[in-house]
Amino acid sequence: MNNPAVGPDEPRDLPAAWPHGVPRDIEIPDEPLTATLDRAVRDHADRVAVDFLGRATTHAELGAQVERGTRVLHDLGVRAGDRVALVLPNCTAHVVAFWSALRLGAVVVEHNPTYTADELAHQLADSGATVALVWEQAVPRVLAGRERTDLRHVVAVDLSADLPRTSRWALRLPVPAARATRAAMRGPVPADVPHWHRLLAAAAPLVPPTAPQAADVALLQYTGGTTGTPKAAVLTHRNLVANALQGQTWTQATPGTEVVYGVLPFFHAFGLTLCLAYSVRIAATLVVLPSFDPARVLAAQRRRPGTFLPAVPPMLDRLAAAAEETGADLTSFRYSISGAMALPRATAERWERVTGGLVSEGYGMTETSPVALGNPLSPDRRPGALGLPFPSTRIRVVDQEDPTRDVAVGEQGELLISGPQVFQGYWKRPEETAHQLLDGGWLRTGDVVRVDDDGMVVLVDRMKEMIVTGGFKVYPSQVEDHLRGMPGVRDVAVVGEPAGDMGERVVAAVVLDEGALGVDLAAVKAWCETRLARYAVPRRLVVLADLPRSQVGKVLRRVVRDKVTTSD
């Protein structure tokens, strides 16, 4: 077969594992992302668009709310090109605000609502946002750093206002459960801060006379990128339209038939594209949950059974475990796409056993809007592999020291990606953009992969997390994969720590199974020496109660490294 890692203009055969019925290339329409919402409202007006904890909003109602939200933002002075910050958990207001800002031609800037005041101030100042729609609990943190930003208006969002009427009434009851729920959803807001839902209720609809263009910037999405320094990836309407259409092509979803579960945070690229862009493109019903909680997901499943679940492996594992314990029925889920981290085979098998459906691993980055590779949604998927390039996506695997030199099929190298979903660069960071985007629009991912004979791409590790010890390169994920099979070990992260002339020392941070008697360094060495090169065997062991993870469950190796280097 031809080398699957070839340039975009070279002829090539389809990889052996290519899914049946999926075209290799697709035509990306020259339209803004908002056109997908217009079609959903027109063609599926009466179908439920959003279900937030039992409160249903049809596509027609969503379209009407977006028209009023557009008026609210316009009255606050937002114009085309202005940045609108969303500091919100998942909720109906988040969906409405996202589409309202895009309708005006404004640029959405997503923020984690649990960030500290300093973290929020840094990102708000960096983007130059002029209006921020903020969850009530985050309002004090945004106001604390407001003088460092260009914010003209801060608008509070009451999460409970999106609940069904009976649920809002129940929050007023003088009982502990109601007080706890109210405290989790609401927060104190100064009297001079306006409220989004009140503004929305009083607003007249506004349909801007001109729509944004495909080439216009739609989103600034903050990411650690490939260097670990937080910066905003610039994504256009065309980038987001392309990835939503690529997702529809890959899943072969029929518009107006799917029920997508929105358990991933919308402020993360994975959740934003799969839940806000892809779901609207296929006119799905989006079941929105403010945070991931297995009991809450199972309650929603009883009310409105889902068909498609984008998630990360820990979510799949916890949800499957909860279903096994309670006898809950998850068999309506035909497909799940897992991303953000490696999908353990045991997790995949458990999910498929409980649901009877399929889980397929995907790969992407914020810089690719975010999905670039995917496993087939068929029995041909390979747990543990990243998958195949999405339609109209090309890849190269190059020498880690010389990105102009391609390596042979089966050899390890850095993954480069080219396609219509690849971002425009980093906001106000031309030097970093030039480093990551090579001639021809090839994005350096910083990930070390190999391509197998069937065209499947397999992750080896991230270049920046590679450990160099005594001149040898150690890929942490390979050591972790082996250690996860060791009796008594529930989870593990492998990092490097300074070791003088040797460069770095391999350190294993492990979380023990409940009830495990203990694991010592000698046992770890004995376990590893049977499968790993001597230089890759951990030289130090640290036992942790848990591993630090991001909002989507990815292990934060930098935080682990800090923990182990300061431990005795």
TrEMBL record:
<feature type="domain" description="AMP-dependent synthetase/ligase">
    <location>
        <begin position="38"/>
        <end position="427"/>
    </location>
</feature>
<dbReference type="InterPro" id="IPR000873">
    <property type="entry name" value="AMP-dep_synth/lig_dom"/>
</dbReference>
<dbReference type="Pfam" id="PF13193">
    <property type="entry name" value="AMP-binding_C"/>
</dbReference>
<dbReference type="GO" id="GO:0016874">
    <property type="term" value="F:ligase activity"/>
</dbReference>
<dbReference type="InterPro" id="IPR045851">
    <property type="entry name" value="AMP-bd_C_sf"/>
</dbReference>
<keyword id="KW-0436">Ligase</keyword>
<feature type="domain" description="AMP-binding enzyme C-terminal">
    <location>
        <begin position="479"/>
        <end position="554"/>
    </location>
</feature>
<dbReference type="InterPro" id="IPR050237">
    <property type="entry name" value="ATP-dep_AMP-bd_enzyme"/>
</dbReference>
<dbReference type="InterPro" id="IPR020845">
    <property type="entry name" value="AMP-binding_CS"/>
</dbReference>
<dbReference type="Pfam" id="PF00501">
    <property type="entry name" value="AMP-binding"/>
</dbReference>
<protein>
    <submittedName>
        <fullName>Long-chain-fatty-acid--CoA ligase</fullName>
    </submittedName>
</protein>
<dbReference type="InterPro" id="IPR042099">
    <property type="entry name" value="ANL_N_sf"/>
</dbReference>
<feature type="region of interest" description="Disordered">
    <location>
        <begin position="1"/>
        <end position="27"/>
    </location>
</feature>
<dbReference type="InterPro" id="IPR025110">
    <property type="entry name" value="AMP-bd_C"/>
</dbReference>
